[in-house]
Amino acid sequence: MGEIKIFGYIIVAVLFLSIIIMPLVEAFLVYRERLMLSDALYSSCRVAAEASNKYRDMININAEVYKKSFCEAFGETFATSFGLNYVGMSGDILTFEPLPTNDAYDNFTVELDFDSSYVPIHYDISRGTKTFTMVTVDAESQYKFKTRFMGYFHRLAPGIVYYELCSKQEYLMVVTN
Questions:
Q1: 0.85 exceeded by the pTM?
Q2: Residue 115, beta-bridge partner list
Q3: What is Dmax (Cα atoms) for the chain?
Q4: Which residues pair with 164 in a beta bridge?
Q5: Which of 40, 62, 140, 151 could tie 81 with a disulfide, CB 3.0–4.6 Å?
Q6: Domain count of the chain?
Q7: Rounded Cα gap, residues 129 and 158, in angstroms
Q8: Domain with 53 in it
Q9: pLDDT averaged over the chain?
Q10: What is the distance between the alpha carbons of residues 94 and 139, in angstroms, rounded to a whole number?
Q11: For residue 109, is pLDDT > 90?
């Protein structure tokens, strides 16, 4: 009889610990996803900046951005890094949807903001005119929970249990001499 009682306590302890540990595991996974998103945004900006620079502007040490080529290169690189499908662009907002084989992510929207009037603090204006471009990238997606426990609560109460996966990255386009 005492063995059944101990077995019951072990089952209750395991259930209680899983209720505590699963949200902690999910928090770790969310943090990991945010790091991956931030890194993908930065590397996509780097690739897009290189693809959109024109040789004649680089001779004059100007970092002019060509929005169309920048957005196309950014969209292809970001879609490849997350296993998404680049749907298209509406203004400065890019949309991505998951591939049929990839159900780890939801739809992404990425907003690009270009500021060609940006001048860094350390730049000496008396040396001449030089064009800098600050690109601000803001990505958002609804997070898909990875653990069954949190996924169950999300399906049970979708308006209460959800997480918006978002990241904001700034990239300064500059041509150095």
A1: no
A2: 134
A3: 89
A4: 142
A5: 40
A6: 1
A7: 53
A8: 2-173
A9: 80
A10: 9
A11: yes
